[in-house]
């Protein structure tokens, strides 16, 4: 089975990081006081640092491992207006104005990313080919159609739906029950994008020190002392941007850890495929997601003629071989023409979910934070990191609906998501049952 799934020289590392290895960062802390210390060198931390440095602040970014090692550089590279709650769910849970603002800002973070890449001339493979979201059952198609009609009453949305009879122009399979086409979104190479943002931050004067774990943040009259594995540094302001890697070294980190649920998933990239085979899966080059609770995601990697598959959320595997076999089974069940493709890269990843399914930024105990992006990490981190920096700088255009919201947790939850495999099993059962009933 291994020969049918994996290439002989497959790598158990991220395809994106394999092509764009982690950069070499500084190895010593500054001896002078810093205006802002940012903890975490993923997208959230780097975008916050970049905007602060361009606003005239001295900025230090510290990272426990290699810069970008645990960020969304390991995941899908989607540039989408992803909100886990539907427009009607947001309206019912909060109010109409909140729902409108959330969806408008999700569109804004796509436009922010596209404009940023063009303005900074970043070579990161960004294409705006759109996305197809496929209905795994007839009920899901009916629900997506109703939801789109309701949403369009209040905000313009560049989305349309195709019935099962019409979906062939967009999907290289007939197992779905229709799909929604999001025309204004895209995807990129997250490894190259991260390196581009990191280079811009350095050019702006940001110091980035990796292999340096933040142990504690102590607040005092003149600012903060950040204790690290390399010593301490004094700062006027501190930003926590650790997302799914938020630790438990002190009470401040534990506060945020209790409000983040790290969701595991697996990714695999195929060996180069024949152009006609890749075209049969992606007729228009769009990324593909599903309406399943535990979806499979697919996207082309245009520059290499490969396909990226992501899925198997909340499922612990004893080995990457097992994860690869499961992903291959899922892939072929949807696209039988891929039966003979093999994976050259397989790796685990994760993202941070919140209990209200919304990103959060704000200030707690004098420390700023940007955490819990719920799978929208690449575009949301850039947009919200810029917003957080504007809040710290006190400049215009800093308001966001995601700031200073109540940040919920559950009694007894400490950040150890032991329940996810059980929850994942229940989700998979529900997804499969709905799909079977619609055949």
Helix content: 25-40%
Overall strand count: 19
Main beta sheet strand tally, sense and closure: 8 strands, mixed
Give me the secondary-structure category: alpha/beta
Report the C-alpha radius of gyration, rounded. Answer: 21 Å
Number of helices: 12
What overall form do the CA principal axes indicate?
globular
What is the percentage of strand-forming residues?
Answer: 15-25%
**What gap, in angstroms, lies between the N and C termini?**
29 Å
Stretches with pLDDT under 50, minimum 5 residues: none
Mean pLDDT reading: 95
Question: Would you write up a description of this structure?
Answer:
The protein is of the alpha/beta class. 33% of the residues lie in helices and 24% in strands. Strands 2, 3, 9, 10, 11, 12, 18 and 19 form an eight-stranded mixed sheet that branches. The protein has a five-stranded mixed sheet with strand order 1-17-13-16-15. The chain has a four-stranded mixed sheet with strand order 6-7-5-14, with helices on one face. Strand 18 and strand 19 form a beta hairpin. Helix 4 packs across helix 5 (96-120). It is globular and about 65 Å long. The two termini are 29 Å apart. The model has no long low-confidence stretch (mean pLDDT 95).
Q: Brief description of this entry?
A:
By secondary structure, this protein is α/β, with parallel strands linked by helices.
Key attributes of the depicted protein:
439 residues; alpha/beta; 5-stranded mixed beta sheet; 12 helices; 33% helix; 24% strand
